[in-house]
Structure formats: C-alpha cells, structure tokens
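Schema walk-through. Below, the input block comes first and the output block second. Nothing else is stored per chain. Lengths vary across the set, and this one has 102 residues.
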Amino acid sequence: MEKIKEKLSSIKIVYPGLDEMPEDIYANNVRVSYNIGSDYILYFAKIDAPPIIEGEKLDNVEVKAKVVARIRLTPQIVENLSKVLKQSIEAYEQNKNQIEEK
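--- output ---
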C-alpha cells in the first residue's frame, strides 16, 4: 500500500483547456449527505425565494430547491477541500480587511 501511495504522490495532475470550460452553474444552496463507510454526496441547488411583502406572515412556506449538480466525493477529498476552503476564506478576509483599511 505504501508503494502505491508513493507512486500516486509523484503523479502530476494537469487540467488542460480550463479556458474552454462550459458555462458556470450557479448554486446558492448546498446539502451534504454522508453514509458511514461511504462517500460524501453534495447536492448543489438553486433556490429562488418568493418576494416577501412587509408584514406578510410566512407560516408553512415551502420553497423548492432545483438541484443543479450532484457530486460524490471521497472522505479524503472532502477533508482536503475543507482545509483549502478554510485557507481561502482566511485569505479573503485578510484581503478584505486590508482594502477596508485604505
């Protein structure tokens, strides 16, 4: 198993044609599902909230989410993604604070 890990760590992954990617898919909601011993499943959805009128009661309002992508990830990828997202958020916050100080 260690030999396999050594070989995999030396493989360079290249993403050719990034400038020819299809159009972005917009999502403003994500649902994460995980079954023990299995992969994570991320459901990315778009939700269009109804217009809210001031003073209107919102009891039992149901908003439908349109799933635009379902992505299955291994626990290892989710863990690495979590770390990268945290670093990215920290860099964003630091950059935002520097801009606001100017």
